[in-house]
């Protein structure tokens, strides 16, 4: 709000006139007209008459004025009351109207409307009324501005509190979501590590099961080889049976030989022929035994080779059996040759004794061989039984391993399914977390925008407040100037009441400063 002086033709000076409202009314200044000294003299006379007429009323107003305001006129008190109550209009919401204050003061009969000495409306009076209305309007406007300022300050405080609350909530929500995300990430990472460990354990178990399966396959191949060996053993038993049959046949031949021994005395040539035939038969038997030994040796070597590849224990047993068989066969062969030579020599010496010794030797040889074969068969049967028991145990172990492998395979599939579900859940959690983060970022941006908008509004309100403060300061200066002027008017009125015409001339010659009027 700016102010400037009134034009010269609107400048005021103090007179002793009183208007309808009981106030001192200023008269036009020396520049308001060009009537000359006669006009000035009439104005001087009118002012003196007005002062004389207003003395009773002024005295009555001075009696009714409080002691704190006794140094001023009633008009000045009313103006001062109106002016000083303006800054409190924002809290009390009321402003005293100068007209209501003036209306409370009793007027002399000559100044009441319809009186005998009622004067027409003068320009100065109109100016004063206009100024009074302007001040009333300014007071109302000033009160509205102050109310608006307080309202805006309250709104600013509320908005600032809301902004702080929103920022605190946003910070708390962000920290909570961040902590939740970190906890979920750590949980998922721990679950993933656990799944990896379980996967590694499953892979180790799978490798162990594969090794066990390979061992089982190896043992199965050994079982197959044992079956083949069993077949070979059956063949050997068949050969033994055949050998027994040959032994029986040999016994029959021995009987024939007994008969032949009885006939040897009768025919030596026949005995020699039979002896040659017997020698040939013995040689055939020896060749047969050697052939059987060679077959057994080849089969033993084959068994030893296979046992050495698959199992050292079986190879040791086979080699032991082979060495025993070879040793027994060698001993038997040597003993047989020695005894055969003795028999031949005894046959030459004594046919009867040689035949008998040869018969006993053959019986003893076949008994020993039979015992050896039976012992070997018993040993092979015991070994076969132990192998069968071991095979049964291996089969049970293979079945157990197969069951465990099936269970571990099911566990592996379940772990793979859990791992896939965990990965899917992690993927979904990441997507949800990404969406939540995007929504939070959008919300943060929106809140930042709202915050910037509120800050801009707050800055605008602060600018408005500064402008209002400037306007209030300007208006305060105007009011203070008005108070000074009104106080000056009151002092002049008292001086007029005490000093008389000399003071009136001085006031006329030295009018007060013009009133600044607001735009």
UniProtKB/TrEMBL annotation:
Coiled coil as UniProt keyword: yes
Coiled-coil region: 149-302, 341-471
Low complexity: compositionally biased ranges: 65-85
GO BP term, example: nuclear envelope organization
GO cellular component, as recorded: intermediate filament; nuclear lamina
Gene3D superfamilies registered for this protein in UniProt: 1.20.5.170, Vasodilator-stimulated phosphoprotein (1.20.5.1160)
Extent of Basic and acidic residues compositional bias: 42-64
Record's keyword terms, sorted: Coiled coil, Intermediate filament
Single annotated GO MF: structural constituent of cytoskeleton
Domain annotation IF rod: ranges: 131-486
Region (Disordered): 1-123
InterPro entries xref list: IF_conserved, IF_rod_dom
PROSITE patterns referenced in this protein's UniProt entry, alphabetically: IF_ROD_1, IF_ROD_2
Biased segments, Polar residues type: 86-103
Assigned protein family: Belongs to the intermediate filament family.
The name this protein goes by in its record: Lamin Dm0
Lineage start: Eukaryota, Metazoa, Ecdysozoa, Arthropoda, Hexapoda
């Amino acid at each position: 709000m700016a102010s400037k002086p009134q034009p010269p033709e609107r400048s005021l000076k103090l007179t002793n006139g009183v208007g309808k409202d009981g106030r001192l009314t200023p008269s036009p200044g020396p520049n308001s007209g060009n009537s000359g000294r006669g006009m000035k003299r009439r104005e001087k006379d009118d002012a003196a008459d007005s002062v004389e007429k207003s003395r009773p009323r002024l005295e009555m107003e001075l009696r009714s004025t409080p002691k704190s305001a006794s140094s001023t006129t009633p008009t000045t008190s009313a103006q001062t009351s109106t002016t000083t109550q303006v800054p409190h209009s924002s809290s009390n919401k009321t402003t005293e109207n100068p007209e209501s204050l003036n209306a409370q003061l009793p007027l002399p009969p000559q100044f009441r409307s319809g009186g005998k000495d009622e004067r027409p409306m003068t320009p100065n009076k109109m100016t004063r009324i206009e100024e009074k209305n302007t001040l009333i309007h300014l007071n109302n406007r000033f009160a509205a501005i102050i109310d608006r300022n307080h309202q805006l300050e309250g709104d600013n405080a509320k908005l600032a509190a809301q902004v702080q609350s929103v920022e605190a909530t946003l910070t708390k929500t962000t920290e909570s979501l961040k902590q939740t995300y970190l906890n979920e990430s750590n949980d998922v990472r721990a679950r993933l590590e656990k799944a990896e460990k379980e996967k590694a354990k499953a892979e180790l178990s799978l490798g162990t099961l594969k090794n066990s399966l390979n061992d089982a396959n190896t043992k199965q191949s050994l079982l197959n080889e044992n079956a083949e060996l069993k077949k070979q053993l059956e063949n050997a038993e068949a050969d033994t049976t055949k050998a027994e049959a040959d032994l029986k046949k040999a016994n029959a031949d021995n009987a024939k030989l007994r008969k032949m021994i009885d006939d040897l005395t009768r025919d030596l040539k026949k005995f020699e022929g039979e002896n040659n035939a017997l020698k040939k038969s013995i040689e055939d038997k020896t060749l047969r035994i050697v052939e059987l030994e060679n077959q057994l040796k080849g089969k033993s070597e084959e068994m030893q080779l296979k046992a050495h590849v698959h199992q050292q224990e079986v190879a040791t047993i086979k080699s032991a059996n082979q060495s025993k068989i070879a040793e027994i066969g060698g001993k038997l062969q040597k003993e047989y040759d020695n005894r055969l030579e003795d028999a031949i020599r005894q046959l030459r010496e004594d046919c009867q004794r040689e035949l008998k010794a040869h018969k006993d030797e053959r019986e003893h040889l076949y008994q020993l061989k039979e015992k050896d074969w039976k012992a070997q068969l018993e040993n092979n049967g015991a070994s076969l039984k132990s192998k069968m028991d071991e095979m049964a145990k291996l089969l049970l172990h293979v079945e157990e391993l197969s069951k465990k492998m099936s269970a571990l395979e099911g566990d592996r599939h379940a772990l793979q399914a859990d791992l896939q579900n965990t990965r899917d859940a992690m993927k979904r959690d990441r997507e949800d977390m990404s969406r939540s983060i995007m929504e939070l970022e959008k919300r943060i941006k929106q809140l930042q925008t709202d915050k910037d908008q509120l800050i801009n509004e707050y800055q605008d309100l602060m600018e408005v407040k500064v402008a209002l403060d400037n306007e209030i300061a300007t208006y305060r200066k105007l009011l203070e100037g008005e108070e000074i002027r009104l106080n000056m008017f009151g002092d002049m009125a008292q001086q007029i009441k005490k000093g008389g015409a000399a003071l009136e001339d001085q006031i006329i010659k030295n009018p007060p400063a013009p009133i600044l009027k607001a735009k």
